[in-house]
Design a protein that fits this description.
The chain is an alpha+beta fold and 253 residues long. It is built from seven helices and 15 strands. It has two domains: 1-134, Fructose-1,6-Bisphosphatase, Chain A, domain 1, CATH 3.30.540.10; 147-251, D-Maltodextrin-Binding Protein, domain 2, CATH 3.40.190.80. It has an eight-stranded mixed beta sheet, with helices on both faces. A five-stranded mixed beta sheet has the order 12-11-13-15-14, with helices on both faces. α1 runs antiparallel to α2 and α5 runs parallel beside α6. It catalyses: a myo-inositol phosphate + H2O = myo-inositol + phosphate; beta-D-fructose 1,6-bisphosphate + H2O = beta-D-fructose 6-phosphate + phosphate. Its EC number is 3.1.3.25. This is Inositol-1-monophosphatase.
Length: 253
């Protein structure tokens, strides 16, 4: 299954590279969201490859929604262009994100950066890797030496809450980054480049693959209620346990 995910991610990434820095039709997906031909084509390629190998599995995809066998215990979560807005501005911060769930719990995660050629991947209870290098999350224990990363949600009703949350942290941290590429952000947390990821409005399926990567790198992915993330989670903190407690205390003040 992991090798199929690799194959699908690489093929999707090749399509993205062909479109990147070239003309690409851009459409409004909502008031504050975009989609491109590259999204559609790369997603179709990933679905075709995976469904050829696993025709009885279900899919939940960013663009085409739920397809395949939704009664299957296996469900593939595909965002074949995570970071579309960056992509449309020729900013090389985007990825192909593919995760496999078994009974709605993460089993495999692959995040592919087609610009650098880097594969981040994890399997449940088998560790997390960047290509062949084993990953370990940051061991930071205080905010003053920590860089946090986040994404501004497309849901405008949550923006005031978001900026209040960031304001409560900004005076104590080394830095805060907003890059609008969730999977790359979580991959960088797993790698230890960033020390924590925080977001106040999430879609479970957008973060579950990256969360598995971070957990397998020794981190935790917990919601604002202190529970493991689920479809009912409102917000998420991904970090080591020491920083999680500090961040949660700060944003609840």
């Amino acid at each position: 299954m992991l090798q199929t995910a690799f194959k699908a991610a690489r093929a999707s990434g090749e399509i993205l590279k062909c479109y990147f820095n070239n003309e690409c039709c851009i459409y409004k997906k909502g008031d504050f969201d975009l989609v491109t031909d590259a999204d559609f084509e790369s997603e179709k390629k990933a679905i075709d490859i995976i469904s050829h190998n696993f025709p009885d599995h279900g899919f939940l995809c960013e663009e085409c929604g739920t397809i395949g066998n939704q009664e299957s215990e296996y469900k593939w979560i595909i965002d074949a262009l995570d970071g579309t807005i960056n992509f449309t501005r020729n900013i090389p911060l985007f990825s192909v994100s593919i995760a496999l769930l078994k009974n709605d719990l993460p089993l495999i995660s692959v995040i592919y950066n087609p610009i650098t050629g880097d594969f981040y991947h994890a399997e449940k209870e088998r560790g997390a890797y960047l290509n062949e290098k084993k990953l370990h999350i940051s061991n930071a224990t205080n905010l003053s030496s920590s860089i946090l990363v986040s994404d501004l949600t497309k849901y405008k009703d949550y923006h005031d809450e978001f900026f209040k949350m960031m304001s409560s942290l900004s005076k104590d941290v080394l830095g805060i980054r907003l890059t609008q590429s969730t999977s790359i952000n979580l991959a960088f947390v797993a790698e230890g480049r960033y020390d924590a990821y925080i977001k106040n409005k999430i879609n479970y399926y957008d973060v579950i693959g990256g969360a598995l990567l971070c957990e397998e790198a020794g981190g935790i992915a917990i919601d604002f209620s202190g529970d493991r993330i689920s479809k009912n989670s409102k917000g998420i903190i991904v970090s080591n346990s020491s920083l999680y407690n500090i961040i949660l205390h700060k944003i609840k003040l």
